[in-house]
Please model this.
Amino acid sequence: MFLNLATRLQKEIQDVKSVVAWQEALRSSIHSPLGALTDIAIDPAAMAILKQLAPNKLAWQIFDHYAAVTFIYASFEKAICGLIEEYLGALPNICGAYVNLDEKLRVQHRIGVGQVLSKWNPDNPLYQALTEQSIASGLADGLRGQSYSILVEAFLMSPENFRANAIRKLFTTLGFGDAFASVVKSGSINDFLASRLSGAETPESFLDGFIRIRNEAAHGSGAGLASAKEIVNYADFVALVVDELANVLRTRALTLGVKTGASIVVGEVAHVYADNVVGVISSTTGSLAVGDQLFGGKKAILPITILSIRTGELSHPNITLTPGLEFGIKLDKKLSKTSQLFRWK
Model:
């Protein structure tokens, strides 16, 4: 769940970081004094031409700043909308009947469908891909007890940028409490802020500051330019925020799925050893194989991959599970004791 989205976001983030690093190195080389040491080794004749044709250094930096922060925010916004779309798309299979959905989610769905219908017309670019029937059919089908879909646009109507409070409001409509609290408490995010920013920012202040800078760039204003290092920090930070929000949604989806039979608890971690090896007590039947993907954790459930399987001193490419069976698996991520392992049924 959300794995393709995460891969796409990571590629976009890596692309913008590579471009920023290259542009900064090239700019430093071209605008360095003649004979000075440069970041990029360029033939002297070519360097002379580049120096002659190069844009003004400040104008070049301004362009890079505007392009980079705008692109990073666009990727961030697209990723959050993608999370919501995938989550809502999975809920009918996870929860079954429409009445089983969280009440806050059903209320927002009803309100949102009405608002989208009131704004719909064939010339409205926001809803050109929708028909009046497709807007209303999911709600109507759900209320009739039939197979239904959830209109994603009913939850993504706010014009607000995705600051911390906007994310809180959005996730509240999905039936969550303070989803941004998970971002605030995230170990990876707090490690990032401590190592990159010396703890001078909170997750909320850094995200809101980035969006302020993006909005200033979008309107061609702003008191200062983000350095290449700052742009990389923004890119890495928003990727971590998206990862944490994906964990929030995935955890809810899997735990709901256990109640309805859409997901199962494979087992619980009883022992933790070195090198990401854990001892598990099975709680189900079925089978596991090396390379299988599971989801594991306690408060936050993360995607994990099985790298090896053992029973006693024997290694196995696969194993048949029975309730109470004890076995060892090596994973690609660290899990703590009493973590549960899940899989989609």
User: Anything to note?
Assistant: The domain at 263-344 is CATH 2.40.30.10 (Elongation Factor Tu (Ef-tu); domain 3).
